[in-house]
Amino acid sequence: MEKNVRIIISGGGTGGHIFPAVSIANALKKQHPDTEILFVGAEGRMEMQRVPAAGYRIIGLPVAGFDRKHLLKNIGVLVKLVRSQLKARKIIKDFKPHAAVGVGGYASGPTLKVAGSMGIPTLLQEQNSYAGVTNKLLAKQAAKICVAYEGMERFFDKNKIILTGNPVRQNLLDTKLSREEAVRSFGLDTTKKTVLIIGGSLGARTINRCVMQGLEKIKASGVQFIWQTGKFYIDEAKAAVRQAGELPMLYVTDFIADMATAYRAADLVISRAGAGSISELCLLEKPVILVPSPNVAEDHQTKNALALVNKDAALYVKDSEAADKLLDEAVKAVNQPETLKNLSTNIAKLAFRDSADVIATEVYKLALNYKDKHER
Ligand SMILES: CC(=O)N[C@H]1[C@@H](OP(=O)(O)OP(=O)(O)OC[C@H]2O[C@@H](n3ccc(=O)[nH]c3=O)[C@H](O)[C@@H]2O)O[C@H](CO)[C@@H](O)[C@@H]1O
Predict the structure, then answer these.
(1) Model confidence over 109-137: pLDDT tens digits?
(2) Which residues line ligand 1 (CB under 6 A)?
(3) Roughly what angle, to the nearest 10 degrees, separates helices 322-334 and 337-348?
(4) Which Pfam family is one of those matched by this entry (predicted)?
């Protein structure tokens, strides 16, 4: 008989944490429709909209990130952390979860710490090839740690590690559109090569600058571009395009809701090296030039990128060299079918399928085990 299991999923901050969290929830619901799921996020962050839009309930904690550069500013952050832990304790007492999942991001720290200290089994999902501080701290209490890269024993107890890959939104894999239909949906020319430029869920300043400074080059390239700027940069980007005059080979937007169509249209992708984007590129076998962000904790995007570059599965341009090289490299690569084919073959080998299902199965096992012991 199906037993009603309750699970908390906590974390967020950016798409890279939220999309895997929602995918795990969907997989749990698919496997065991009676599972009750509660999300715990950070007040004011992206998850507070995205999670309800995906059909799940979320409660926000007043948590904020530590300022690693200005230590004095952290007094307020510490107060918020204590308040968050108190609120997490109340949430857990009310909801009575049988397991908790942490996907990284501010909220997962207090939630998983409190859950662990109350004896509830916890599972961590580490998306990157270099473990974040929060996950390293939470790892001691965790029952299982699902990772996406080899070699994570250098951060975590190897007996707890399961190599699952990062969950990817199912609709990315389900699209039936042809390349031509996808290209047309952006108002572009189906006879031309197309480069998709993405900067992670929030956009990437360096990549945007390269495009804005390279508009004349783009005009002359014979190639067309779909450019996602991120919401902070869209006005500046649109103004630059207006000033450059007619650019029918360039589609500009702040955010692409339908990434499946954008990937389908692309012959080559230029991307930051966020873990979510990389997992998608692997599954969709897309040739990519990675430009890791140097502004993330412990420089983890460079490590993500190198895990692919070392296997000839991606091209690599350093952030500091992007202004000089990026557009030229993209135009060159997209016109070399042999290069594109090799990149596609090699990146496909790094894909993990069924990631969300495997993680959901592990969480459910932990939860059932706890429930059997405590609710007889
Ligand atoms: C700046 C920052 O801190 N980035 C981190 C953040 O990634 P961040 O959320 O920026 O990026 P990811 O690459 O992990 O994920 C981006 C997600 O947003 C989607 N997308 C993107 C653009 C768009 O227009 N529409 C859209 O839907 C992508 O398809 C993808 O699913 O979490 C990741 C996972 O821990 C880390 O590896 C990144 O280093």
Answers:
(1) 999 999 999 999 999 999 999 998 889 99
(2) 14-17, 19, 104, 127-128, 198, 200-202, 228, 255-256, 259, 274-277, 280, 293, 296, 300-301
(3) 100
(4) Glyco_tran_28_C
Distance 108 CA to ligand 1 centre (A): 17
Annotated binding site for UDP-N-acetyl-alpha-D-glucosamine: 14-16, 128, 169, 201, 256, 301
- Residue closest via CA to ligand 1's atom 28 equals 277
- Dihedral in degrees, nearest 10, Cα atoms 123, 108, 354, 58: 120
**How far does the centroid of ligand 1 lie from the alpha carbon of residue 272, in Å?**
8
Contact, 282 vs 263, CB < 8 A?
no
Cα 139 from Cα 134, distance rounded (Å): 8
Mean pLDDT, rounded, for 75-91: 93
Tokens 């944490």 -> residue: 17
Q: Quote the CA–CA distance of 350 and 311 in Å, as a whole number.
A: 9
Domain at 6-166+353-374: CATH code: 3.40.50.2000
User: What would the DSSP string read from start to end of 316-353?
Assistant: E--GGGHHHHHHHHHHHHHT-HHHHHHHHHHHHTT--S
Burial of residue 89 (CB within 10 Å: 0-12, 13-18, 19+) is middle
Nearest of 142, 138, 76 to residue 110 by alpha carbon:
138
Label each residue of 92-120 as H, E or C. Answer: HHHHCCCEEEECCCCCHHHHHHHHHHCCC
Task: Give the ipTM.
Answer: 0.97
Task: Summarize pLDDT for 212-268 with one digit per residue, the tens.
Answer: 999 999 999 999 999 999 999 999 999 999 999 989 999 999 999 999 999 999 999
**DSSP category for residue 45:** S
In this chain, the answer to whether the domains covering 6-166+353-374 and 171-348 adopt an identical fold is yes
Q: In CATH, what class is 171-348?
A: alpha beta
Mutate to test the pocket of ligand 1, among 24, 126, 130, 201 (most ligand atoms within 8 A of CB): 201
Percent of the chain with pLDDT over 70: 99
- Residue 235 carries which side chain, given as an amino acid letter? D
